[in-house]
Amino acid sequence: MMTLSEVLDVARSGRWAVPHFNISNFVQLKGIIAACAELRSPVMIGTSEGEVEFIGFKVARAMVDALKAETGLPLFLNADHFHSFAMCKKAIDEGYDGVHIDMSKKPYKENINETKQVVRYARAAEKDISVEGELGYIVTDSSKIYKKIVAIPQESLTKPGEAISYIEETGVDRFAAAVGSLHGIAANKPILDFYRIERLREIIPKNTTLVLHGGSGLLDNDFKRAIELGINNIHISTTIRAAYIKALKKALKEKKDETTPYKLYDPVVRAVAETVKEHIKLFGSQNKSME
Ligand SMILES: [Zn+2]
């Protein structure tokens, strides 16, 4: 079976995007994998520091392994927005396939140093670990739905010149850039800086994967255009969470006397799967499982 780096290589040359969805329990994972199995899509399953604190590293790994065996799909586990070398080391030691070291809110030098340390540790591991670094920062939080328009300061966006030195110095495999998207869902009109995406793709090394975070709330055409311009990995979290909660609230309301959890969760799994399928189709990852 292909490694995460190999799947990302194929995505870059084929101009499609590997989807990345976050989970904090088995119900979310079940919905995501049902969609991926139906459409034969590879997928990255992400846990943030908070999410993995709830699930547990070993349980996250075991769930993904079990579903990988059951479906035969290329499923990968990624540490999403981990904020220290120590946490990334823990994820690598626990068998994660990828780590994202996010020091984007720290000063440039500190970001470089901590990221370098993660890359060095990952390269020394027995298996192929894909490392993501981030430069420029996203101003919002994925646990929130913002009712108002959020201001995005120009200095928070990734500067292409700095991106090159950052990638060259750290040696990261995946590069998360701040290009106008937001974590969570805000009232902002989608404001992706397509020129910046295009420019970044032109100048960063060919074998570096350009990652788009904050995919929730973007329009279908935004995804398509971003992929055309060189995004090959897209993170979706809040949209899935929102679909989950909406379906759960509806089920609780409709079946007031139900005491069997899996009966309440059945429509939740289906709602998550539907949302995931829409994204897979937009990202072009359908039938890319490469059996
Ligand atoms: Zn993110």
From TrEMBL:
Gene Ontology MF annotations: aldehyde-lyase activity; zinc ion binding
Cofactor note: Binds 2 Zn(2+) ions per subunit. One is catalytic and the other provides a structural contribution.
InterPro entries: Aldolase_TIM, Class_II_FBP_aldolase, FBA_II
Binding-site list for Zn(2+) 1: H81, H183, H213
Single GO biological process annotation from the record: carbohydrate metabolic process
Swiss-Prot/TrEMBL cofactor(s): Zn(2+)
Keyword Nuclease annotated: no
Active site positions: D80 (proton donor)
Keyword check for Metal-binding: yes
SUPFAM superfamilies in alphabetical order: Aldolase (SSF51569)
Source organism, top-level taxon: Bacteria
The protein's name in its UniProt record: Tagatose-bisphosphate aldolase
Species name: Candidatus Ryanbacteria bacterium RIFCSPHIGHO2_01_45_13
